[in-house]
Amino acid sequence: MSHAPLPCCSVRGLTKSHGEIRANDGVDLEIRQGEIFGLLGPNGAGKSTLVRQLTGLLRPDAGSVQILGHDIVRHPERAARLLGYLGQESTALDELTVALAAETTGRLRGLSRSAARAETAEVLAELGLEPLAARPLAKLSGGQRRLACFAATLVGERPLLVLDEPTTGMDPVARRAVWSAVDRRRAERGTTVLLVTHNVIEAETVLDRVAVLDEGRVIACDTPGGLKALVDGDVRLDLVWRGEAPLTVPAVARLAERADCSGRRWTVRTTPEEARELVAAVTAGPAFAALDDFTLATPSLEDAYLRLGGRHQGLAK
Ligand SMILES: Nc1ncnc2c1ncn2[C@@H]1O[C@H](COP(=O)(O)OP(=O)(O)OP(=O)(O)O)[C@@H](O)[C@H]1O
């Protein structure tokens, strides 16, 4: 008889209210070992509330959280030994230099001084942070500080990494360094990663599975491919006007009623057949003269998300 491996993290019926607001409403999740698992959802969906309960920082009103077989509701103090957590709030280590913050995290996690130092040097090199090693966290730019906090989270390795919006404020080079570091830990050490993110398109390439949270509930849980199958067959037409859209053109006026309009950019989700007709209509006559740019694209994970929780626009952060 074969046994399924122990899940890394198992959440059942998790419920938490902040006063009147039910931030988590019976959440069930199972994260497998070695998986990069994404938690998506609009602002206020309850992602941070969920994550803070997994990390033992917040006590649920009801439900259970097991991490590698440990009951985190009963023993919240065990979470620190099982997971590395990068939260959204600023760190208590803000007065320290980048190197010392990382080293101190390693020491707090039980590494000897020399091991903490060696790991810090490795992680700073991996993330391109060596030039900032001697600078206090409080004196760095937002993106630099975020990367330094991410570095500290990696020192004193834990089997589970919980990363709440790790790339907020980072430039593309730093973002790429974060995703490669995450991917490398999974490939080389079997680390499990729970990633909370708004940046769906960026995260799509590293995620094995995704749960979509909306108003405190899991409304979908699947692979990125599985979620995208929800919008299979649809295409997205983006139009960018030079100035005001030419609403005197009947086809454009009709489009205005159903497009998501964001300034000069209009987005329409439609079938390939209709997209061809729309493109023909806007690339002729006065509409074309008013058009700055247009693109037709196959669906992304963000389109799948919008289809699921479409009334929210929270992922466009
Ligand atoms: N300490 C608190 N006191 C009162 N209400 C809170 C508190 N923390 C969160 N909430 C409310 O609970 C709901 C869920 O918040 P949460 O921070 O978990 O959402 P989120 O999905 O992490 O959002 P974001 O993407 O903006 O970070 C929101 O309606 C929020 O206003």
TrEMBL record:
<dbReference type="GO" id="GO:0016887">
    <property type="term" value="F:ATP hydrolysis activity"/>
</dbReference>
<dbReference type="GO" id="GO:0046677">
    <property type="term" value="P:response to antibiotic"/>
</dbReference>
<dbReference type="Pfam" id="PF00005">
    <property type="entry name" value="ABC_tran"/>
</dbReference>
<dbReference type="GO" id="GO:0005886">
    <property type="term" value="C:plasma membrane"/>
</dbReference>
<protein>
    <submittedName>
        <fullName>ABC transporter ATP-binding protein</fullName>
    </submittedName>
</protein>
<dbReference type="GO" id="GO:0005524">
    <property type="term" value="F:ATP binding"/>
</dbReference>
<dbReference type="InterPro" id="IPR050763">
    <property type="entry name" value="ABC_transporter_ATP-binding"/>
</dbReference>
<dbReference type="InterPro" id="IPR017871">
    <property type="entry name" value="ABC_transporter-like_CS"/>
</dbReference>
<dbReference type="InterPro" id="IPR027417">
    <property type="entry name" value="P-loop_NTPase"/>
</dbReference>
<keyword id="KW-0547">Nucleotide-binding</keyword>
<keyword id="KW-0067">ATP-binding</keyword>
<dbReference type="InterPro" id="IPR003439">
    <property type="entry name" value="ABC_transporter-like_ATP-bd"/>
</dbReference>
<feature type="domain" description="ABC transporter">
    <location>
        <begin position="9"/>
        <end position="240"/>
    </location>
</feature>
<keyword id="KW-0813">Transport</keyword>
<dbReference type="InterPro" id="IPR003593">
    <property type="entry name" value="AAA+_ATPase"/>
</dbReference>
<keyword id="KW-0046">Antibiotic resistance</keyword>
